[in-house]
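Dear support,

I submitted the protein below through the web form. The confirmation email said the job was done, but the results page showed an empty box. After a refresh the structure appeared. I'm attaching both so you can tell me whether what I see now is the final result or a partial one.
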Amino acid sequence: MIKCICVDDSNKPSKIPDHKWIKKGQEYHVIFALYTMPQNKLAVQLNEILLDESCAPYEYFRADRFNFRSEDLYRIMDMVRLSSQLNKQINENTERYTSVCD
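What the results page shows now:
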């Protein structure tokens, strides 16, 4: 987990309840990071808040809402790289499974 501090809690989507929204000045812990498409924005999943199906289409928080220690930026990039590799493997396995079932 990577520590971060919320610096921007503005513009909460109405779809997300208050108890599932971040609070400026509060510390959180990133457990997953990825680039979202089609926005091509870095986004994070937090240990403290689960954006579930009731928050759809929102699944992650924009990373620019948080400050990170400079030494943790490399760790964030590693998370993004690993999540990209995982997504690629999932897509490949899904394609294989689909072709076998057809």
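Response: this is the final, complete result; the empty box was a page-load delay. The chain has one domain: 2-101.
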